[in-house]
Write a structure and sequence with these properties.
The structure is a single chain. A hairpin with a 2-residue loop joins strand 6 and strand 7. A 5-stranded antiparallel β-sheet has the order 6-7-13-11-12. It has a 4-stranded mixed β-sheet with strand order 1-2-5-3. The protein is globular, with a radius of gyration of 20 Å. The protein has 7 helices and 20 strands. By secondary structure, it is α+β, with helices and mostly antiparallel strands. The chain is about 25% helix and about 25% strand. The longest helix has 19 residues. It folds into 3 domains: about 70 residues, Uridine Diphospho-n-acetylenolpyruvylglucosamine Reductase, domain 2; about 110 residues, Uridine Diphospho-n-acetylenolpyruvylglucosamine Reductase, domain 3 (2-Layer Sandwich); about 90 residues, UDP-N-acetylenolpyruvoylglucosamine reductase, C-terminal domain (Uridine Diphospho-n-acetylenolpyruvylglucosamine Reductase, domain 1, Alpha-Beta Complex). Bound molecules: flavin-adenine dinucleotide. Flavin-adenine dinucleotide binds next to strand 3, helix 3, strand 9 and strand 13. The site of flavin-adenine dinucleotide (FAD) has 31 residues, from strand 3, helix 3, strand 9 and strand 13. Its EC number is 1.3.1.98. Its main location: cytoplasm. Keywords: Cell cycle, Cell division, Cell shape, Cell wall biogenesis/degradation, Cytoplasm, FAD, Flavoprotein, NADP, Oxidoreductase, Peptidoglycan synthesis. One of its GO terms (molecular function) is FAD binding.
Length: about 300
Amino acid sequence: MNNLPFPYLQNVSLSQLSTFAIGGLAKKYIPLATIPDLVKVLNYLWQNSLPFQIFSGGSNIVFPDQGLDEILIHLKDGTLEVRDNLLTADSGVKLSQVINFAIKNGLSGLENLSGIPGSTGGAVVGNAGAYGSSVSDVIQEVNIWDKGRVYWINKKDCYFTYRESIFKKKKRVILKVKLRFKKGNKNNLLSISRQIINKRRVKYKEGLRCPGSFFKNILVTDLFPSVLEKIDSSKIVFGKIPAGILLESVGAKGMKIGEIEIASFHGNLFINNGQGTAADVKKLAEILKKKVYQKFGILLEEEIRYF
Ligand SMILES: Cc1cc2nc3c(=O)[nH]c(=O)nc-3n(C[C@H](O)[C@H](O)[C@H](O)COP(=O)(O)OP(=O)(O)OC[C@H]3O[C@@H](n4cnc5c(N)ncnc54)[C@H](O)[C@@H]3O)c2cc1C
């Protein structure tokens, strides 16, 4: 690999960079805090045919045990601004910062996502959501870098569905996001946000080494009636069967491979007890997928992303 004409670090531990605390070494690691710097770096890498990967909050990924040979870009920060009910955020801004800023300005739309870790760009990639809302509810346009070109695409062209977007399928880098909110009552919004954060603290204790929910929930509309018959309808929430319910019923809680363990209190929560590996995560995930498929005829899909 060529020497790069901008600062970078070598052999950086990936396990320090994700909430799951898994992964070998990144050979070349570039931390960046601004969009102009990001675009400069991306253009250089593109012009020199140098492969790269990008991440931000590291809260939805499983890095590989063998490390990364490709250049790893870490988008760490950014700025945001609001005009009337339109908020523009750099993709590296924390989602929590966007939510707090919106609430402070009496803007409603993302308060149900309070407490979700990670960046705004990461939230767009996975169409992050909670309690019946998702980030796509407020997205108007997304500014992207795509093979040397920078342009805006509208919401329709992002193909958002439940925990999905075009960005999971096509390698495009999200630079900025324009979010359109509704007017709301600041105190009500703050109260909703606090309640949700308190609820989430019960499941996700401070410092828990995990990537959030491991598998996606299942949309009821995706299932044949014969499959749906096997599910207790009282468990369906916001039109979805929680993956955790299916996993619990096949005995997932407390299962363990190496130092990767399924929480004793939640079937869809993979926890790294310290020295867990991506290989063990994959083994455990495959076993659980098979068990759920055998019992319900439902194929679970990962919400997390393997690098
Ligand atoms: C405790 C905990 C609770 C969670 N709860 C929820 C929840 O309730 N709902 C929910 O939806 N998620 C939840 N998550 C998962 C995670 O927080 C979200 O998916 C989050 O939006 C990911 O953002 P990130 O910046 O951490 O993304 P990363 O993990 O850094 O990256 C995720 C993916 O996005 C890509 N990516 C990141 N930034 C960019 C960019 N600028 N351009 C292009 N691609 C990019 C990466 O390549 C990777 O494929 C939880 C995670 C944890 C640890």
